[in-house]
Amino acid sequence: MRRDVRILLVGDEGVGKSTIVTSLIKESFVAHVQHVVPEVTIPPEVTPENVTTYIVDSGAGPQDRPHLESEIRKAHVICVVYSIDSPNSFDRIPTFWLPQFRQLGVNVPVILVGNKIDLRGGQVTNEALEDEIVPIMNEFKEVETCVECSAKMPLNVSEVFYFAQKAVLHPTAPLYDSRDHVLKPACVSALKRIFKLCDANKDGVLDAAELNEFQRKCFDAPLQLQELEGIKDMVREHAEGGVRDNGLTEAGFLYLHTIFIQRGRLETTWTVLRKFGYAEDLRLTESFLLPKFDVPYDCSVELSPMGYQFFTDIFETFDKDQDGALKTTELDELFSTSPGNPWASQKFPDTTLVDDTGAVTLQGWLAQWSMTTLLDHRTTLSYLAYLGYPDEPRTNALTTTRPRKVDRRKGKVTRNVFLCYICGAAGSGKTSLLRSFAGKPFREAYEPTTKMISVVNAVDIDGSEKYLVLQEFGSKYEAETLRNSKKTDLADVIVYVHDSSDTNSFSYISNLRQQYSLDHIPTLFVATKSDLDLAQQRHEVQPDVYCRRLGLQVPVAVSVQAGQTADVFHAMCSIAMNPHAAIPGGADRALTASERLRMYMTFTALLGGVSAGLVMVYRSFLRPGGTVLPSWTPHWATWLLGRRDA
Length: 646
Fold this sequence. Notes:
- By secondary structure, this protein is of the alpha/beta class.
- About 40% of the residues lie in helices and about 15% in strands.
- The strands form six sheets. It has a six-stranded mixed β-sheet, sandwiched between helices. The protein has a six-stranded mixed β-sheet with strand order 17-18-16-19-20-21, sandwiched between helices.
- The longest helix is centred in the C-terminal third of the chain and has 28 residues, at about 595-620.
- The relative contact order is 0.05.
- This is Mitochondrial Rho 1.
């Protein structure tokens, strides 16, 4: 919310602009004031809205025009002052002043201020004032309200500036159509979303407990029983269908906010909107959707117990038929307070577990969010906001893990969600392996993978549930991923898949390993299509010998079509939890690509230092005449450098 307000007073000569400012400051009438009083700064602690307020006076003469136009462009709100005893000063508002603001390209709230009501004879009703003002407000939507005052008495002077502040801090224009006297569509949409989030049991009404929670969240105070009944009585009387089963319906909720706005209590509606993350354009702010959450290098992000509890609760809330799964209509309703299903472009729900009807099970739902949090925690953070995570800070729903290198060094992995890259030649059965892991049926027809596929499922390891994410890149993205050290450092396991019935399949894997630096990643080899005849691979050694030379277990033979997966997914998860035993060439190679680069640079620097030292030592052994000392000196130097042929 804005922390300062700049109020400009304009109007014809003699209407009392400067006198209004001095009456506010002096709290009494000052008969003789200068033509234009200097700018006044009011500190936040003495204003109701707790913002710094700048009050700027102006003149209306020809000599004042350059200064006036400059100030109009800088103003946050403009008070157009007219004099009650000068009808011409009022008539010039729609014919001169308001058109001039538009001509200058200025679109800020405008307050009409009728000064010198002490000079009016007789009483003027609100209806009479409305008859004068409404035609102007209908033509010029920037006009927020009209306030009448007297700088002489003084009367309503502070109210002028209060309404001016409110026009900036709690503007009408984004919320309410003053011509048609209805809430604007964006405001209706935002309030409907807030209503849905507050309707905890999703029965379509806000009961006493839900209204109290709403009141506590927005205004830090519960509703008294008498207040609550008064609100419901008013809604019953004026809004058809606004109360049902002794609770407030969506229609009643919208009616209340319409009344707040019509009665000038915009701060109430704006307080509600801002508590739920809305900015002045009635969009959720980026700072609300994505609060600060730092992820240290080499760490990953997982849901915390509170995060898992929230997603469990929301699943059970929207599982209306209580069948333990969310069908499409239930998912649509669940995501109705968000931009939509975040996985719509990812072939969801093929990415996780579903029941026989294709509805997402609770296990599949939690697994999907575990994968999303691992791969893109910002999506999870924003959807926690969209779906109404109840506690602050919202980042408590996430947790960062210990760095992978620390886990590998200690030999004890503390994480619960693991990322596994699946690599291999086209047609080797990678996609079938992923579909099997997600509980999907085998497909006979071959479909080349053109974009990245990610699936997730839970794996039981010694009675503890872990989530395993499998990723296949497709030919288009495989090289891009494997050459990027930042991406390969994220992998907990890499699985090389070859078709055991295709003589050329294993060579692809061997070439892949030669081409990219991947030996720091715990590794598993898998031989697919074991139901078919085993083919001799066109490679210098066969896969089992190749694996033994690397110190790894021989390829796990599987047949997805025959339903024989040999518990390969358990093996992947076990390797992620015990990475040392699966590092090609031994555990001492379990350094990330970036770590190896840093070690290389450090070693190079040290080697350079040693070499420089040798040059100096060698020179010190030269005799003045330039002859070299005994022949053991170079041997000593080569020994110091650590050469094996020394």
